[in-house]
């Protein structure tokens, strides 16, 4: 039933895709041949971005994102300083084409003094319908990057040293954002369409919700750590995304597919990013962009809760499906952490029935010198006093695995933190066994009864 709904109502047909493609060709030709013909600025390349480039466009949404990489930008700072002037030039040239009746454009008025994007609607005799465009001028930070290769580490070092606001130069990484999604299985793209359709249904009545891109990344994360196969159950996948949205306060998601955390500058920057308040969803192409920051996840979570028991989360027999139990994934590997932290920090959603506790319920940690912030930065904003009925330890060589579970739903969030410690004795059910462990000069929490 869900497959039929997606195919009939969400999947764009060939006619739709052909129209968007013809519109893109019109604007690409204009950018390359006409826009800067009387200027020293050269168009290095034009890259198609957005959902139409990723293969996740919704039927009836005739829009396209084009990123124009220009020779006048010699660095990220140049783009930030001069983009308004370039956008004004592109607009002037588009208006000249309109006067020559090559095509018609209607511009969207920007509320920003230094806008990042020129938005307009294109109509033409060669098109059956109008198409909305976002054109973004950008610095060619990646150069001619070969498919499947990582950007040079210096690109991200320069980005970290140049940015003021997270994600402000994300347009420079459009090709990486596109490739991250377009390579995914066809059915996963259909799940992304379903999530986007749900998002568009609830957004008008909720206001400042998280960006749609955050939901796309959350869907990919759910599939990677959940089923992970090309032929998964669509209802279970959708239910898992809804469950993740409801547990937004525990989200800490990032990928290392493009930026190299073995570099000291990048590693330190990522550590700072992952110490910020939840939810955290780092752009896999741009580590400065946290898609979880500064929006009303609480409102989206309420909508997700109301949809969790809807027909789209039921199987063929009408029973409601359960979300996937998501696997543990490393945030940093041992080699990336270096000395002082022997094992990775990790976070995940996982069924706590799989965990065994050497301590009975009613054990808490008493902090000294905030070792969570020192040893386990991404978890420094969680309090063990408020987030679950028990805190337990599992002995793993010279490392303690700390797991915090909650009993508020059947799909239980679990934070996993590994603290490097010189533990000569494994823990048992006695809270007096290891009253204090030491990590350098910092005291790791004492164990006490509540």
UniProtKB/TrEMBL annotation:
Its cofactor is Mg(2+). The keyword Coiled coil does not apply. Residues 150-327 form the 2'-5'-oligoadenylate synthetase domain. GO terms for cellular component: cytosol; membrane; nucleoplasm. CDD domains: NT_2-5OAS_ClassI-CCAase. It comes from the Eukaryota. It comes from Vombatus ursinus (Common wombat). This is 2'-5' oligoadenylate synthase. It catalyses: 3 ATP = 5'-triphosphoadenylyl-(2'->5')-adenylyl-(2'->5')-adenosine + 2 diphosphate. Its main location: cytoplasm. Its EC number is 2.7.7.84. Pfam families: NTP_transf_2, OAS1_C. Belongs to the 2-5A synthase family. Keywords: Antiviral defense, Cytoplasm, Immunity, Innate immunity, RNA-binding. PROSITE patterns: 25A_SYNTH_1 (PS00832), 25A_SYNTH_2 (PS00833), 25A_SYNTH_3 (PS50152).
């Amino acid at each position: 039933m869900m497959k039929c709904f997606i195919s009939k109502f969400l999947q764009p047909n060939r006619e739709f895709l052909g129209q968007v493609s013809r519109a893109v060709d019109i604007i690409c030709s204009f950018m390359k041949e006409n826009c800067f013909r009387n200027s020293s600025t050269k168009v290095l390349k034009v890259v198609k971005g957005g959902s139409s480039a990723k293969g996740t466009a919704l039927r009836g949404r005739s829009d396209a994102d084009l990123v124009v990489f220009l020779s006048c930008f010699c660095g990220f700072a140049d783009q930030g300083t001069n983009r308004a002037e370039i956008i004004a030039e592109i607009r002037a040239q588009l208006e000249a084409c309109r006067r020559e009746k090559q095509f018609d454009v209607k511009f969207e008025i920007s509320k920003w003094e230094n806008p990042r994007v020129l938005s307009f609607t294109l109509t033409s005799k060669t098109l059956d319908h109008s198409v909305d465009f976002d054109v973004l001028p950008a610095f060619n930070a990646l150069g001619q990057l070969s498919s499947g290769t990582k950007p040079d580490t210096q690109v991200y070092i320069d980005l970290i040293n140049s940015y003021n606001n997270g994600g402000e130069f994300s347009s420079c990484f459009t090709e990486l954002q596109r490739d991250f999604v377009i390579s995914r299985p066809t059915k996963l793209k259909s799940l992304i369409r379903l999530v986007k359709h749900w998002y568009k249904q609830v957004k008008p009545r909720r206001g400042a919700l998280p960006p749609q891109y955050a939901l796309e990344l959350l869907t990919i994360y759910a599939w990677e750590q959940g089923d992970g196969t090309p032929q998964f159950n669509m209802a279970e996948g959708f239910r898992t995304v809804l469950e993740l949205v409801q547990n937004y306060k525990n989200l800490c998601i990032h990928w290392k597919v493009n930026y190299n955390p073995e570099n000291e500058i990048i590693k330190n920057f990522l550590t700072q990013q992952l110490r910020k308040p939840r939810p955290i969803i780092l752009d896999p192409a741009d580590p400065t962009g946290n898609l979880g920051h500064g929006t009303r996840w609480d409102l989206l979570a309420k909508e997700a809760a109301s949809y969790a028991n809807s027909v789209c989360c039921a199987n063929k027999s009408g029973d409601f499906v359960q979300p996937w139990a998501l696997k543990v994934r490393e945030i940093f590997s041992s080699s990336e952490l270096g000395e002082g932290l022997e094992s990775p920090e990790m976070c995940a959603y996982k069924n706590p029935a799989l965990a065994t506790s050497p301590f009975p319920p009613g054990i808490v940690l008493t902090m000294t010198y905030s070792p969570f912030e020192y040893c386990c930065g991404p978890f420094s904003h969680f309090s063990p006093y408020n987030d679950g009925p028990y805190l337990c330890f599992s002995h793993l060589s010279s490392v303690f695995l700390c797991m915090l579970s909650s009993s508020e739903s059947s799909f239980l969030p679990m934070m996993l933190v590994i603290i490097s410690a010189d533990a000569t004795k494994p823990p048992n059910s006695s809270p007096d066994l290891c009253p204090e462990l030491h990590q350098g000069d910092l005291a790791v929490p004492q164990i006490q009864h509540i």
